[in-house]
Amino acid sequence: MFDCSFTPVTWGEHLRWRRHYAEKSMCEVAEAVGISQSELSLIERDKVIPRLDTVVWLAIYYGVTLDELIGHACAAEGR
Predict the structure, then answer these.
(1) d(CA 49, CA 29)
(2) Dihedral through CA 55, CA 13, CA 19, CA 33, nearest 10?
(3) Considering Cα of 34, then 8, then 24, then 38, what sign does the dihedral take?
(4) pTM of the predicted model, to two decimals?
(5) Burial of 42 (0-12, 13-18, 19+ CB in 10 A)
(6) Which position has the higher pLDDT, 42 or 8?
(7) I need a surface site. Which of 1, 38, 46, 74 has the fewest CB within 10 A?
(8) pLDDT tens for each residue of 44-56
(9) pLDDT given at position 37
(10) Would you say 16 and 48 are in contact if contact means Cβ atoms under 8 Å apart?
């Protein structure tokens, strides 16, 4: 379950936290969602905004909703 006590500041930080929480390497995630490792790195460093299909595949990969993936689940729970 996502820990609402820590709120990453940026989209990229949130994705990086989720990847570390899942104990996955950048290479594993990138390959699974169909992007390059360098593109995932750019996304996690907030250098580019991911395409919508990439965001959907990331949510599927991590087994979460889009709201949870982008960090809105805690707000919806009132935390």
Answers:
(1) 17
(2) 20
(3) positive
(4) 0.78
(5) middle
(6) 42
(7) 1
(8) 999 999 999 999 9
(9) 97
(10) no
